[in-house]
Design brief:
Pfam families: DUF3747 (PF12565), SLH (PF00395). The protein contains eight helices and 14 strands. It has about 425 residues and is of the alpha+beta class.
Length: about 425
């Protein structure tokens, strides 16, 4: 970004049949993601109260040999004292609080696009359910609090379910899976120690991002790939909203997640250089850790007031500057030449001559066609227009593919 300018029972419910807990006509889909097993004693699902009688899902993972992230008390239900709320949990706990941080995986199929995880009151307890996003599938029930009380409550997973972590090309990502096996569920919960790894062959790597509003979008294929890679997700109404502007913090978050598909990103790592926190990015903000990590590693963010204005939209010019920095960072980590080699003839855009980002836009046009005309038509780049979700995802996927191709070529030589 010239971001210097810049300025996401069974066993105990005897009356509930297995078929009612598993989706009818379960969508079998290929995925570029696999999963890895976790120490189940180090992860917990919590029903977190908010508002009057409302609860959402919080997943907490304890980092080994660090101070406790939570304490448990009682049973039916088990009350949770989320200690991480009382101290700086950086480097001690990992947590996920929304659908970008956890999803259902059943028999090797990632159901994040098909099901929304919710905590709902039912029969004198809170139940963790997967609610289908479209017709044709049944609700999935994954666990319950085994009672009701005031405050935070532990969600006990039913037999056949366990916590795993998402992996991509053998790299462990931060995304949690509630991973189930229909055979284990039917058998009462005999789960293998290591979940089956599932990886798609190149011919299978097609997206299941069947959003209702991208069927005619020119970036549909790249949106699909971005969703599969975990860079972006849709909305609860099964839309992607491709024309919606991308904010500064959203772009940074996506860029960090994109880098995480190439190597493991440790958001809790000690910075290699001093970074002054932005005045308008509180440590409790959902994007704070990613923004700090980006500052330390690949972005030159700042302005005279030391503010980021994280909720402000970015421009297409700023997007290209960020993509350039991201590509250089990845090439450096992969021991590739830092220069962005031109893979094709750069386009002569008709409206960039007066832009501060003219050189960057031209360079990114010649680098695997990352920079392209507005809506892929004509010769106008529209550098000052707001960057939309569809083009942002497309640009990010293009950078990753370009770096990957260069790395593969380097390995052959």
């Amino acid at each position: 970004m010239k971001i210097s300018r810049l300025p996401l029972k069974l066993a105990t419910l005897a009356t509930v049949t297995l078929s009612s807990l598993i989706p009818v006509n379960l969508p079998v889909k290929a995925s570029t993601f696999s999963e890895t097993a976790l120490d189940q004693s180090k992860v917990i699902a919590v029903a977190r109260p908010y508002g009057e009688g409302k609860y959402d899902l919080l997943v907490i993972e304890q980092i080994p040999e660090k101070r406790d992230c939570w304490a448990e008390n009682g049973s039916n239900p088990t009350l949770i004292d989320p200690l991480l709320l009382n101290f700086d949990f950086t480097g001690i706990c990992r947590r996920s609080t929304d659908s970008n941080g956890y999803s259902i995986r059943l028999d090797g199929n990632d159901l994040g696009l098909d099901y929304l995880l919710r905590v709902v009151p039912r029969g004198g307890e809170l139940v963790l359910v997967g609610t289908p996003r479209s017709a044709g599938y049944s609700e999935i029930v994954l666990g319950s609090t085994k009672g009701m009380a005031q405050g935070f409550m532990k969600i006990n997973l039913y037999p056949g379910w366990q916590f795993t972590k998402r992996t991509y090309q053998e790299k462990v990502l931060g995304h949690f899976y509630f991973s189930g096996s229909q055979a284990a569920i039917a058998a009462g919960g005999d789960i293998p120690d290591t979940p089956p790894a599932t990886s798609a062959s190149p011919s299978q790597r097609t997206s299941q991002a069947n959003f209702s509003d991208i069927s005619s979008n020119i970036y549909q294929g790249q949106i699909a790939k971005g969703v599969e890679m975990g860079l972006v997700s849709g909305f609860d109404d099964n839309t992607f909203r491709p024309d919606q502007p991308v904010t500064r913090e959203q772009l940074i978050s996506m860029a960090v997640d994109a880098i995480g598909t190439v190597y493991k990103v440790d958001l809790d790592a000690t910075p290699e250089r001093d970074v002054v926190p932005f005045k308008d990015v509180e440590s409790s903000r959902w994007s704070a850790k990613k923004i700090k990590w980006a500052q330390w590693n690949f972005l030159n963010i700042g302005n005279p007031n030391n503010t980021l204005q994280p909720s402000e939209p970015i421009s297409r010019a700023e997007l290209m500057d960020t993509m350039r920095r991201m590509a250089i960072h990845l090439k450096n980590r992969l021991d590739l030449p830092r220069e962005l080699q031109q893979t094709q003839e750069a386009m002569a855009f008709s409206d960039t001559s007066g832009s501060w980002a003219k050189t960057v836009i031209t360079q990114m046009s010649g680098y695997c066609g990352v920079a392209t005309p507005m809506n892929e038509r004509g010769t106008a780049f529209r550098p000052d227009e707001k960057a939309t979700r569809d083009y942002t995802v497309a640009a990010m996927v293009r950078v990753l593919e370009c770096v990957e191709a260069e790395a593969q070529q380097a390995n052959k030589n």
